[in-house]
Amino acid sequence: MSASDSSPGPDLATLLPGTLDCVHCGLCLSSCPTYLETGRETSSPRGRVYLMRGLAEGKIPLAGVLAEEAHLCLGCRACETACPSGVPYGALLEQTRAAVERAGLRPTWARRLERLALRGIVPRPRRLAALMTLLAFAQRLRLDRLARPFLPKRLRDAHALLPLVPPASQRRRLPAFTKAEGERRGKVVFFEGCIMPELFGGVNRATLRVLVQQGFDVLVPEAQGCCGALQAHSGDLETAHELARANLGALDPGDVQAIIVNSAGCGAALREMDHWLGDEASRVASRVRDVCEFLDEAGLRGALLPVPGRVAYDDPCHLVHAQGVSAAPRHLLQAIPELELVDHDDPSSCCGAAGTYNLTQPEMSQAVLARKLDSLEPVDPDMIATGNPGCLMQLRAGAEGRGMRAEILHPIELIARALPPSPPS
Amino acid sequence: MATLPLSSSGAPGASLEDELRQAVGAEQVLTRPEDLFVYEADGLTHHTARPRAVVLPRDKTDVVQIVKRCRAHGVPFVPRGAGTGLSGGAIALDDGVIIECARLDRILRIAPEDRFAVVQPGVINADLSKAVAHHGLFYAPDPSSQQACTLGGNVAENSGGPHTLKYGTTTNHVLALEMVLPDGQLVQLGSPTGSAGGYDLVGAVVGSEGTLGIVTELTVRLSPRPERTETMLGIFPDVVSACRAVGAIIRSGLVPAALEIVDRRTIEAVEASVYAAGLPTDAGAVLIIELDGPAVAVGRQVERCQDHCREAGASEVPVARDEAERQRFWRARKGAFGAMGRLAPDLYVHDAVVPRQKLPEILEKICEIGDRYRLRLSNVFHAGDGNLHPNISFDRRDPDEMERVLAAGEEILRTCVEAGGVITGEHGVGTEKKEYMGLLFSEADLDAMRKLRAAFDPDRMCNPGKMFPATRFCAEANPKARGYDQVPFG
């Protein structure tokens, strides 16, 4: 379902072709976290597709069950991995949410919160940085903890998820160009993301370090910005398309091998840019690679140092289901000496973070997180690796809540730990 | 028989919906029109009926309460699992209530030494095998929808699957049942030891399509994992030669775990999907053969099967290289129905059984019927036990095509019955085939079944409108009445 038209207001009839791919076999049901939690057909992918078809055929209204379900859905897209018929569920959901947004059917607080955060702050690097500075200041003086009891419940929930904001020195953007070490194997663009440099600067530096050490020149175009994924997920396709269009120019690869992304949510959005912007975006979209996927394809060169410990790898939904990448991070981790990759049940099910879902649907988010922790806890890993900022925050908060000792990190951080020290430059 | 103490139903004049909300909690009762819209169909999309309400019990007490209250209001009820059934069995006719059992999803007990498990009806089929794998055990019936379908639904439909050939259908694996009768009584049928004496009521309930009561607990047999399992693909130029190989393998005395045929149209659809397994898209048909048992024996059997395939015209017979490839073959086979969504918006999965020796001739006739009605028909089926699944891809929005689909379907069923077959192997009768029961059973045969049903459910409260023809049929349609001497098996 590629919308060649970038306008954010597709007619509801455009939902129909995608829904017709569903023959109602039901193989998706058990992959759906909200179905497993509720047991309701209405909260299953098959049920939601049936509702969407019903809407497109004029049998049911948008307001009511469908509008609620469009936002109760995590958007994890595990159903796409289960669907033999190839129903473009993610695209259908995005269109349905956009319709819900246009019709003004969301609770006012949710709209306001998302508008403010996703239009006003996240895609604006200076404002985001200023907010983080403020937050870092508050966290250091423990003002946030003092203020906590006076915050509305939803902000309290948000606060519980928020990691300690790193000091300003670690929140700097990466250099525009870093030269490959040793024999040069190629040149790549690195997509920094918006939240990543602020809260997970360490992951970005680890990514840069690994790419450079592995022989790749790394370009970090300054004009790049937010990918638009969170906005699209919330139903604001207009902003999402604007952001994507800006990145189209900024990320145009020229002669680079790949556009490297280390955040699964951003990777999925960038990879599917052509769904929003049409064929003009396919040049960029087709070169987007998750960092683990890219390194696994290229092959790690040189010996790795041991990183002793038992590691559980948990698939970010937007990596395994939206981008189809699941073997590559495991291969890379297995290549590290003394690192034991341990299995847990259902590594490819959602952790409940799902963008801003843990703020807008806290109860379901917690229920989905509980299932995830139930599968991780008995394995008692030393480390849990997952490649998406939302999942990192959600799993950190969840593991801490249960008193689990595991360190939660991005797989690229483990690979960076296994690299020999850099030669003096 | 044990009876739970019951409170009387709610205040006089209260609506059924209000009483249900009071009994099980408001959030467990769905009544909005769009909720009911979603529950209008199961896996068979062209038979629809909207329920009056959907209730989601969380334990057996809830089920008893729901049944009691529906009964007090004279409203019929239908148990539903995952709604993957293919005969319209889980839709509510007569403005009935759907009792959605998906939340009754706990495995209550695993007894590895006695090789049984006690589960609630909403446990997903594949989850049970996963949960007992570390004991070296598995649950044998494996319908293609096993990653989603529930064990309660499997009991209702007496579900089969590819491994029915060696392991039998659900009825061979259910030891005991706890069920709520249509009058609200909770009863225990059968025994975990498998021999309880008295009437075999477990046998009567398995395959009863929800017409006798609502199962709240199942005790099922677990089977030991075979020492070795090998899966191979016979690559054939056409479906008929693959059928000949099936005949030769069975005649030779081998008992494979599974013998499945997938035709070209199906291979193409699956190979375009997420379940692609590298099946050759230029083959006319692929015969999936699985052998399991003691390691030494299986090795020899593999060679014998390969020989039979080559003699029947197979160009090659590769064996799965490892467990991962074996699993891919099966995921492709089991994802086949859903993959047909790539051809058209709807799929009518037929289900009939014919004697194995008739397979080649019947398949030719079925393909001829499909062509004559100008339909996109494909075949993917349990060849080993003669269980055909002619699949017709169509669009229910096209009334002319819909008419041809139904006419072709009826002709296919008649052809199978005339060849000594039956009208369903594992999908049940439901609403889909109730009017075809007369092809197989005489009025007296059906009356015997009606009497059994009346013993459990005299007022037809439990899944009414299923399985039995609405009208007395004409004798002419019935092969027995026409003096056929060979009574079809079933």
- Number of helices in the DSSP assignment of chain A: 24
* Class by SSE composition of chain B: alpha+beta
Task: Please tally the helical runs of chain B, counting DSSP H or I stretches of 4 or more residues.
Answer: 16
CATH class annotation of one domain in chain B:
Alpha Beta
Enumerate the strands of the largest sheet of chain A in spatial order, edge to edge or round the barrel: 1-3-2-4-5
Which residues of chain B form runs of ≥5 with pLDDT under 50? 1-10, 479-490
Question: Biggest interface in this structure?
Answer: A-B, 36 and 47 residues
Summarize the biggest pleated sheet of chain B: 6 strands, antiparallel
- Shape estimate of chain A: globular
- The CATH topology of the largest domain in chain A turns out to be Rossmann fold
How much helix is in the residues of chain A? 40-55%
Structural class designation of chain A = alpha/beta
End-to-end span of chain A in angstroms?
A: 49 Å
Uncertain spans of chain A:
1-10
Distance between the termini of chain B: 31 Å
In brief:
With 425 residues, chain A is of the alpha/beta class. In chain A, 49% of the residues lie in helices and 8% in strands. Among the domains of chain B are: 16-100, Uridine Diphospho-n-acetylenolpyruvylglucosamine Reductase, domain 2 (2-Layer Sandwich); 228-339, Alpha-Beta Plaits, CATH 3.30.70; 343-477, 2-Layer Sandwich (Alpha-Beta Plaits).
